[in-house]
Amino acid sequence: MKHCFLKKRQFILALFLCLFALESFGQTVTIEPLCRANGSVKLASVKRVVDGDTVYFQDGRKVRLVGVNTPELDHKHGLHEPFAMEATLYLKSLIGKEVYWQSALNDRDRYGRKLYYLFDKDRISIASRLLSAGLGYRIAIPPNTKYQDCLIQSERKARNAHHGLWRAPHNWQPKAGFTKVSVTITSITRNRGGWWLETNQDLVINLPRLISELWSEQDVYSLKNKRIEARGWQHQRNSQSKRFKSWVLIVKHPNDLLDVSSDA
């Protein structure tokens, strides 16, 4: 029974990769990863892939890829986000049994996972491959921004070709977790919590005080009445006061808050 199950999984993976290749060919778009390892890398054995951006090493380390966020797998109920399974299968095909890695400057997240840049056998960034395939979103969280420039290019390739996640519009939804939205800034204030950019939705964007120096005052105020694109993790406020927006989206880097008014 176990042997049959493994064969079925291998068949599904092969089918996905085949369909993905055919789709890319049909659109005459060449998906090329742009990020190569800069500096020395170490080799590790992989125990298993958890989802599109998380793996376990054989030595027990749980590793979160830096620079990319992929759709969530619902391991409990099977209600996966769109392209979550595709991202997971693609990551499995890229990694195999071994992977090269570099530690990020801040190498551990609040869940205890190690934060690494991962590379395939050709020293190509796995985050870059996922982004080029449209199976994840680029994200910048200081100080772990080493490969941001080329990751931006990788994502742009998929976006321009409407691959994967870029087939659907990114309308704001009142849902906790990672999000990418296009909204209009209606008012801007600043206090000890940082910058607060209210939007035309039930959403306020927060640029936290500890990293607010990444934005100049002029740049922030210039966003008023502008259509912007923002990405990060959002949560619902505990306060039910009607004076405040119900949802807060935290943005931690200028790459993740862009004026897109001219694109409209």
Oligomer: single chain
Number of helical regions = 5
- Output the strand order for the largest sheet: 1-2-3-6-5
Inertia-based shape:
globular
Secondary-structure class: alpha+beta
For this structure, the CATH topology of the largest domain is OB fold (Dihydrolipoamide Acetyltransferase, E2P)
CATH architecture of the largest domain: Beta Barrel
Mean pLDDT: 88
Description:
The chain is α+β, with helices and mostly antiparallel strands and 264 residues long. The protein has 2 domains: 31-166, OB fold (Dihydrolipoamide Acetyltransferase, E2P) (Beta Barrel); 177-263, Nucleic acid-binding proteins (OB fold (Dihydrolipoamide Acetyltransferase, E2P), Beta Barrel). Helices cover 24% and strands 31% of the residues. It has helices at residues 2-26, 84-95, 126-132, 148-161, 217-221; strands spanning 42-51, 54-57, 62-65, 68-69, 98-108, 114-119, 137-138, 177-191, 194-199, 203-208, 227-236, 247-250, 257-259. Strands 1-2-3-6-5 form a 5-stranded mixed beta barrel. The chain has a 5-stranded mixed barrel with strand order 8-9-10-12-11. Strand 9 (194-199) and strand 10 form a beta hairpin. Helix 3 runs parallel beside helix 4 (148-161). The model is unreliable at 2-8 and 21-31 (pLDDT under 50).
Question: What attributes characterize this protein structure?
Answer:
single chain; 264 residues; alpha+beta; OB fold (Dihydrolipoamide Acetyltransferase, E2P); 2 domains; 5-stranded mixed barrel; 5 helices; 24% helix; disordered N terminus; endonuclease; endonuclease activity; nuclease
